[in-house]
User: Which sequence fits this backbone?
C-alpha cells in the first residue's frame, strides 16, 4: 500500500516559487491500477517522481508498506527503486545497447549472476511478446515494441509497484490498447500494483480501477473509476469526462430554455428511445446538444446534454419523466453555475 | 613567380630535398606519430575522467560537487587552454625535467603536449556527455543506479559515437601541436619542415612535410568518422 500524506512540492524558478503539488493525499492499495489524470501542468509528473523520490517532496510523506520513503538514506532509496520501477513516455531505452542488454541493466545493478540474469532477460522478452528481438537495437523497433522492452526492463527486478509516466502518450491508439492490455496482464498475473499517469481519459477508462483527478497540483476528485466518470463532480473532472464542455461547445441556456444533463448508469437506459418518447408523451421537443457513451468495466455508460425549451414547468415535467427511467440520473443546469450565468 | 620557382625549386634544391626526404621522412613521420599517439593517449586518460567530473559535478549534475571546487576546476582548465603552446613548453620545462628526466627531446615534448591537450579533451568529453538525453539519465536513476553506475553503464556507453568524434578532433589538434616540438629539440615532421625547409631555404622539403601532415590528418579524421558511424547503433541499417 502506498500512502501519500499531504504531499507538497514547490520549485524555485526565475519567476518565483511554484507550487507543483499542494497537500496531495492519496491511498493506493496493493493490486490497484491507479490512474492519476490531469491536464498538462497539473503536477502529475512531479507527483509520480515523488513516489520514488526522484523528486524530494517539500512537505508531507510517501509511506510505502509502513516505510516513510522520505526518511530513507540515498542507498536505501536505491534499494526501493528496484521494487518501485518506472516506464516513461519516451521509453528511454539505451540507444547503443541491444534489447537484451537493456533488460540486463537493472539485473547488473542488483548484481544478479550473469547466467541467471540472461535467463531472466530472455524470459521477460517472452513475457512482453518479443522473443526474437534480443539482439535488435532500439532504433530498429517500433514505438510499441520499444515500450515493451522498457516494460520488460522495468519488470526485471521483480518489482512490487510499476509507475507508468504517460507510457502510452507517444503511441497510436491501437498500440496504446495493446500496451495497456500488457500492463493489465502484468497487474493480474504478477500482482504488481500499477500507477498510471496520463492525460488521456481513455487510458484510465480502459485499465484503471481507481482514479484521482489532479488540477493545479491538488486532488480535485478521487474514487472508483465508474463512480467518478458516471457522475463527475469537480469542474476538472467534467472537463475531462465531457471534453465538449471544455471546448466551449455548450451553448448558453437562452432566456427560458434550460440545459439538462442525463447520465445513464447501465445498459438498459440506452436501449429505449427516451428523447423520442418524451416528445410524444410530454410534448417536449428536447434538443440534443451533445451525447457520448462509453464502456466501463463491461457496462455501458453515457451522458447526454439536452436543451429543454419552455419555462420551469416544462423543465420540471422533463426531469420527472427522465428520472423515472431506471439507471438514469438527471442533473439540471449542471454546467451553469449562477456566477457564470450572471456574466451573460 | 618565375623567380620564386627558380630560387626554391631548381634542380639543385630538388635534389637536396629528395635526399632529405629519402633519409629522414620515414623516421620523422614515425616520430610525429609516436609523439601524437602517446600524448593523445595520456590526454584522454586525464581528460576523460575530468570531463566526467565537469558534467556530474555540476550543480545540476547527478553528483553535484562543492561550488568552489567546480569553479576551481573550470578556471584551471580555462587557464591552461588560454596559454599558447609554445609558451607552455618553456614554462613547463622544470616540470618536464622532473617527470621524464630531461627538458629536451622527443619524449620531453610529450609532457607539455599532454598538459596542453588534456584540458581540451576534458572540454570535448564534457560536450559529448552533455549530449546524453537527460531522460535516459533519469531512467538510470529511477532503477536505483548510483551516480557512478549511471556514468559507467549509461552516460559513457550512450556517448561512445560522440566520444570517438571528440577524440578524433583531439588527435588531429595534437598532431598540429607537434610541429612546435623543435623548440625544445624534439623531432618530427613539423620540426623537419622548419629546420630543413624554412631555415635552409628548401621549400620543397617544407611542401613535402606539409603534404604528409595533411595526409595524416585526413587518415585520422576519416578513420575516426568511419569508426564513430560504425559504433552508432542509432543509425538504422
Assistant:
Amino acid at each position: 500500500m502506498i500512502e501519500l500524506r499531504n504531499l507538497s512540492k514547490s520549485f524555485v524558478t526565475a519567476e518565483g516559487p511554484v507550487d507543483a503539488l499542494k497537500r496531495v493525499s492519496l491511498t493506493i492499495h496493493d493490486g490497484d491500477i491507479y490512474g492519476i489524470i490531469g491536464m498538462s501542468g497539473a503536477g502529475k509528473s512531479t507527483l509520480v517522481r515523488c513516489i520514488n523520490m526522484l523528486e524530494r517532496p517539500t512537505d508531507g510523506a510517501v509511506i510505502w508498506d509502513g516505510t516513510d520513503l522520505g526518511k530513507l538514506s540515498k542507498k536505501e532509496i536505491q534499494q526501493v527503486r528496484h521494487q518501485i520501477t518506472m516506464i516513461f513516455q519516451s521509453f528511454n531505452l539505451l540507444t547503443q545497447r541491444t534489447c537484451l542488454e537493456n533488460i540486463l541493466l537493472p539485473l547488473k545493478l542488483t548484481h544478479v549472476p550473469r547466467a541467471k540474469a540472461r535467463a531472466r532477460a530472455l524470459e521477460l522478452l517472452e513475457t512482453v511478446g518479443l522473443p526474437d528481438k534480443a539482439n535488435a537495437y532500439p532504433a530498429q523497433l517500433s514505438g510499441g515494441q520499444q515500450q515493451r522492452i522498457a516494460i520488460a526492463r522495468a519488470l526485471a527486478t521483480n518489482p512490487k509497484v510499476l509507475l507508468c509516466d504517460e507510457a502510452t502518450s507517444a503511441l497510436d491508439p491501437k498500440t496504446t490498447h495493446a500496451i495497456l492490455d500488457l500492463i493489465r496482464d502484468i497487474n493480474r498475473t504478477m500482482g504488481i500494483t500499477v500507477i498510471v499517469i496520463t492525460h488521456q481519459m481513455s487510458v484510465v477508462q480502459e485499465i484503471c480501477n481507481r482514479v484521482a483527478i489532479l488540477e493545479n497540483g491538488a486532488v480535485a476528485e478521487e474514487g472508483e473509476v465508474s463512480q467518478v466518470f458516471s457522475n463527475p463532480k469537480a469542474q476538472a473532472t467534467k472537463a475531462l469526462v465531457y471534453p465538449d464542455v471544455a471546448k466551449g461547445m455548450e451553448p448558453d441556456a437562452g432566456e427560458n430554455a434550460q440545459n439538462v444533463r442525463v447520465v445513464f448508469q447501465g445498459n438498459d437506459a440506452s436501449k429505449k428511445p427516451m428523447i423520442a418518447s418524451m416528445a410524444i408523451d410530454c410534448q417536449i421537443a428536447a434538443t440534443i446538444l451533445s451525447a457520448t457513451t462509453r464502456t466501463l468495466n463491461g457496462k455501458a455508460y453515457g451522458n447526454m446534454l439536452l436543451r429543454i425549451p419552455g419555462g420551469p414547468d416544462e423543465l420540471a415535467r422533463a426531469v420527472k419523466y427522465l428520472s423515472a427511467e431506471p439507471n438514469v440520473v438527471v442533473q439540471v443546469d449542471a454546467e451553469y453555475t449562477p456566477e457564470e450565468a450572471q456574466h451573460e | 613567380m618565375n623567380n620564386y620557382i627558380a630560387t626554391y625549386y631548381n634542380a639543385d634544391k630538388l635534389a637536396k630535398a629528395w635526399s632529405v626526404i629519402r633519409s629522414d621522412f620515414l623516421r620523422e613521420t614515425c616520430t610525429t606519430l609516436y609523439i601524437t599517439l602517446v600524448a593523445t593517449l595520456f590526454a584522454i586518460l586525464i581528460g576523460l575522467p575530468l570531463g566526467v567530473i565537469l558534467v556530474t559535478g555540476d550543480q545540476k549534475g547527478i553528483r553535484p560537487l562543492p561550488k568552489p571546487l567546480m569553479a576551481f576546476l573550470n578556471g584551471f582548465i580555462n587557464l591552461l587552454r588560454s596559454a599558447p603552446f609554445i609558451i607552455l613548453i618553456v614554462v613547463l620545462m622544470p616540470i618536464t625535467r622532473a617527470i621524464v628526466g630531461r627538458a629536451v627531446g622527443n619524449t620531453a615534448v610529450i609532457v607539455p603536449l599532454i598538459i596542453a591537450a588534456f584540458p581540451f579533451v576534458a572540454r570535448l568529453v564534457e560536450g559529448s556527455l552533455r549530449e546524453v538525453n537527460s531522460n535516459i539519465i533519469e531512467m538510470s536513476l529511477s532503477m536505483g543506479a548510483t551516480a557512478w553506475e549511471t556514468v559507467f553503464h549509461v552516460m559513457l556507453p550512450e556517448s561512445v559515437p560522440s566520444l570517438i568524434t571528440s577524440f578524433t578532433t583531439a588527435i588531429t589538434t595534437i598532431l598540429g601541436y607537434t610541429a612546435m616540438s623543435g623548440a625544445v629539440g624534439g623531432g618530427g615532421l613539423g620540426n623537419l619542415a622548419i629546420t630543413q625547409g624554412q631555415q635552409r631555404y628548401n621549400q620543397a622539403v617544407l611542401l613535402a612535410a606539409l603534404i604528409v601532415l595533411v595526409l595524416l590528418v585526413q587518415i585520422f579524421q576519416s578513420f575516426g568518422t568511419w569508426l564513430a558511424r560504425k559504433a552508432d547503433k542509432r543509425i538504422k541499417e
About this structure: The longest helix of chain A spans residues 173-190. The two ends of chain A are 48 Å apart (CA to CA).
